[in-house]
Amino acid sequence: DVKMAIKKGLDMLHNENLVFRDLHRQNIIITDEIDEESESNRVRFIDFNWAEKAGDVRYSFHLAFCICDISGMLEYDLIQKDHDIKILDTL
Fold first, then answer.
1. Where does the Protein kinase domain start and stop, copy by copy (predicted)?
2. What residues contact 16, with CB distance under 8 A and at least 6 apart?
3. Residue-wise over 46-81: b if at least 16 C-beta within 10 A, else e?
4. Which of 33, 52, 69, 76 is most buried, by CB atoms within 10 Å?
5. How far apart are CA 79 and CA 51, in angstroms?
């Protein structure tokens, strides 16, 4: 299942205390390599320019309302790992 593979990737980032912050379909690639053993090894994240350590950085002002409603984040709020998970639930 692709969604579980994305969750596995987020877990790897979160274990390093990182938040991806820009999780949407355009930033997820599914490789087409035949030798990959399972779906979970085929998921790749791209565009890490928003990724930061959890709790070290704040979101900017003027966040999109739809993102705030989904994730629970607030303008100038500290970034948190659970925001990634809430966004994942909407993919």
1. 1-91
2. none
3. eeeeebbebeeeebeeeeeeebeeebebeeeeebbb
4. 52
5. 10
Would you kindly state where each structural domain of the chain is located, as residue ranges?
2-88
Report pLDDT for 20: 93
User: Confidence class of residue 14 from pLDDT cuts 50, 70 and 90?
Assistant: very high
Using DSSP's 3-state secondary structure scheme, residue 18 falls into: strand
- Looking at the domain covering 2-88, what would its CATH class be? mainly alpha
Rg of the chain over all Cα atoms, to the nearest angstrom = 14
Among residues of the chain, what percentage have pLDDT more than 90?
34
Going by C-beta distance under 8 Å and a sequence separation of 6 or more, which residues neighbour residue 36?
A: 42
Task: State the alpha helices, DSSP H only, in 1-91.
Answer: 2-15, 65-71, 81-88
CA–CA dist 56, 17 (Å, integer): 10
pLDDT in tens, 16-37: 999 998 888 999 998 876 555 6
